[in-house]
Model the fold of this input.
Amino acid sequence: MTKQRVAFLGAGNMAEAMISGIVESGKFSPEQIIATNRNNQERLNTIKEKYGIEAVTKDQLDFSNITVFILAMKPKDVESALSDLKDHLKPEQLLISVLAGISTTYIEENLNERQQVIRVMPNTSSMLGESATAICPGQHVSMDQVLLTKELMNCIGEAYTIDESQMDIFTGIAGSGPAYFYNLMEHMEQAGYEGGMDRELARKIGAQTIRGAAQMMLEQEETPAQLRKKVTSPNGTTAAGLEALAKNGGGKAIAEAVKGAASRSKELREELEKVFAEQK
Done:
């Protein structure tokens, strides 16, 4: 991996979260990472000083020695970005997109024939190396490039290769999922406070409880239902809590949250596709 050079085209929050996770993992050295944007030198200086990486404006970027380009600008800017890239990309160079709602097909159609493209979707936990990241290979990608992408994405958490048709539901689960848990913790914290507990203490207890439950899920072979049954004694406190959860629609609310986010992801994708179609 020592020869790989990774350039982020865009230096916003998601790019920074990924850069942070990648550098922190130690699998790539800061010298292998480059951040670019159009002309915000102040932002580039901040990222350069914080992570020790190279940071240059797009006009200063040497395209010839880059192994992987990561599209990390705003989705609305993708058309001009691809137009700029087209004359620089070589077939052996990989293009990874983290742009929500932009399909691999659209990217491929706006680049040179048989260009290698992979779409990924990390979530905000990538800054801590705990992202759940989807990988969707395009039509012309080699297995070596898929493995390279998975190794790169594993620097920021766990990567899962899925079909692109599953990206909307993945967004509902993993892309938006952290917010569901933050919302759950808000309510747990409030309940603790109303029960006489200090807010910060209730917050830490809730966070550790969720962390422990998640770790159990990752390390044990049991299903969520089996683990739930193991901690639920008949007529006990957990049974009472679960009964109240069901009575108030807790389980259904979680499922509907995932479906709602997935539906909105589909709507946004279709809106972008319509805009791009009208521009042609």
In short: The chain has a mean pLDDT of 92.
